Structures are given as structure tokens and as C-alpha cells.
Model the fold of this input.
Amino acid sequence: MPNFACIVDRDFSNDLEEYESGPLPLHPYENADLEAMLTRMNAFRALLLELGSEDKIVYMGGAEAVTCILQDIVAPITRLRAANAAMGWGLAFDKVDLADKIDIRTLSLNLDGYCSALISKNPDPPPKQVLLSFATGRAKLPYEPKCPRGSNPYYRGRDLLAAAGVALRKKIGSCDKSTTGSEHLARILRAIGCQQFANSTWSEELQELLSSNT
Done:
């Protein structure tokens, strides 16, 4: 089919790898998904500085330092998502609000509470200690999700945005909760990052892929 390419999220399983070596013209986003890819661009820094307090962000060490803190917050969630994909647990991550499990004053993640919430949304969940073992890294994953393009650390974009939303309410800003949900921030990030995304190496490679299928 001419001028055709499959743009997909890489997510947290290794299913995509076998198809990437096949005949389908696949072009996965960098990192886990589009929003994760955009958080690795200057667009995310612009979002933090626009919605947050510059003084508070500087006090935290700057936008890059804030981003690293947010990445550390969601690292256990990434490990849980990867374990869920590998073990086939079918955990309903979308039914648990990650932001509600992050302390607005300290930005610490209540991992025990998050795992309990996941369990409550699943009819046949694994024991909480199993979830905690994977989330903390004590239990080793059969497959480590990673981006072949080298975009690290690896995470779901909306998980990072959920953590950013909590930070923007107090630690690095004074925004209302209603304006800092992950879905709302994702829309803002896509708008801010549109031009940078269009000029990225990833987009250039997409154009080359499309041209090669003519």
C-alpha cells in the first residue's frame, strides 16, 4: 500500500519487536508512547515554566531536576505495567488515579496504597506483596521495556503528567486540581510540542518510510 505506515505506541510488552523485523511499515513512537516522547522534548520544559512558578522550579533545581524527580516517582509504576504485561494479570491501571496516590506536599508515591487500589479493581489480582516486589524492583522482570532509540528512562507519558499535575498544584506552582489532570496536560503538551515534534528526527524518518512505500 503506497504512502502507508503504522504509527503505534511501544507500551510495555515485547510483542512489537517481532513485528518490527517483518514486512509491516511500523514506526513506533520514541519511549512508551507519544506523550512520553513529548516529555523528552523542550515542550515539556515549556509546559512546566508556563503553568508553574519559575521561583519554585528554580528552588527545586530547575526544570530538568523537576523532570528527574517526576521520572523517579513513576518508575515503580513502569515496573508494575511491565510485570502486568509479562504476567497477563489484566490489571485495570486506567481505573486508578495515580495522582491521588502522590502526596502533594512531598511528592512521595504511596506505592502500598496504589497497589491496594489496583487490586480492588481486579476480580482475580495477584497478592499485594507480589505487586510490591515487582514495583520496587526486588522481583526481576522477564522482559525490561525499553526504547531502541535510547529514550530513557522509560515510562507511560500520562503517568509522568499525572505526577507533574500534582507538583504543579503546590511544589512547583499553585494550579487548581481541575486544570492539572493528566488528560488536560496531555492536550496542552501536544499543542506546545506540535512544531518541535514535526521537526524531530522521528518525523523525518516517518517521511522517509512513507516515501519508501510509494
